[in-house]
């Protein structure tokens, strides 16, 4: 167990833990077949267009990472062992992991198939300090399931997650409150959730590459680089963030997804589908009085390989036009790697209440026209039903010939705010790290 400083140096308890299963999918396969131990193992599709869903640590030492094309992984490791994914098997094991956590800690927030946040302050009387609880959890998972895990601890969610990443593989790192700023200072700004590639480029242009440097720049410069989340990011950077399990407004999400019995092979059909889904999600936002600043596209291939990509912008919106623009852009970047698609999902995250949220003024006549059109469509849909009208661009040629422009392909069912559609592995935040 590693500890950043003396836990006794502050009375504030680092009671938020982030537990992350190490290379989860690959670790399960190695556990189930011990002959794979020590070999470069990946989980994913073995075909020419397959993608790595998870990589064992021996594979990572060769430069192989999640979401990498399988052809590239083979070039890096000619002796690569490729195992087809067993999604339902992983889900069952994930459920067992969460049961083990629940035996010790009451306040648990599972955020993906292989990771969860835990507030252990209420468990201290029975099980001891946070580091003792973390050791107990990791030991039980190892003994009962034969799987490695890593844990980070802090006074906030964000720092606990960063700490667990620094503890990998199979480690523990507790960051006391008084040492948070010191722990974060040398780390790259990219470890902060909310600083994407564009913000990172903007910060790099002004010489800001570490969190310590970020703390020194004027707030106005930070706001220009990262947008409205500047105060939140600054609070994390200076160690004053105290976001726990009960503060999740920015992580609420809503969305829709659909699985086909037969694979989609026409890129134009996939594009029509995600365009329609983006419209549906935008309507959900407006109906729930939410705005968003992040849209997520989820694509799943027939072999179970899942790609999840997101786009974040500065100004919150509920505009279908904006969501369509962003999600189509994500699809265009991935279409060459997903020649056959079994599942498509579109989700809006980082939701905020529309009331009281500053939204950038829409100055162009085109934008104002879209707002008026969407408002009219919302009223018509409310009065005449979900399938009463739709956008012509969401129709296939056959649809247009058989149905006419006023009878669109039915919308998929939508999930509720705060209950996002299930996600597959993601390079930064999903199974197989």
From TrEMBL:
Lineage per the UniProt record: Bacteria, Bacillati, Actinomycetota, Actinomycetes, Micrococcales
Domain UmuC: from-to ranges: 16-196
InterPro entries: DNA/RNA_pol_sf, DNA_pol_Y-fam_lit_finger_sf, DNA_pol_Y-fam_little_finger, DNA_polymerase-Y, DNApol_IV, Rev_trsase/Diguanyl_cyclase, UmuC
Description of how the protein assembles with itself and partners: Monomer.
Cell inner membrane listed as a keyword: no
Localisation per UniProt entry: Cytoplasm
Matching HAMAP family: DNApol_IV (MF_01113)
Protein name in the entry: DNA polymerase IV
Cofactors required: Mg(2+)
UniProt keyword annotations, A-Z: Cytoplasm, DNA damage, DNA repair, DNA replication, DNA-binding, DNA-directed DNA polymerase, Magnesium, Metal-binding, Mutator protein, Nucleotidyltransferase, Transferase
Ranges of Basic and acidic residues composition bias in the record: 420-433
GO molecular function: damaged DNA binding; DNA-directed DNA polymerase activity; magnesium ion binding
Functional description taken from the UniProt entry: Poorly processive, error-prone DNA polymerase involved in untargeted mutagenesis. Copies undamaged DNA at stalled replication forks, which arise in vivo from mismatched or misaligned primer ends. These misaligned primers can be extended by PolIV. Exhibits no 3'-5' exonuclease (proofreading) activity. May be involved in translesional synthesis, in conjunction with the beta clamp from PolIII.
Site (Substrate discrimination): 25
EC number annotated for this UniProt entry: 2.7.7.7
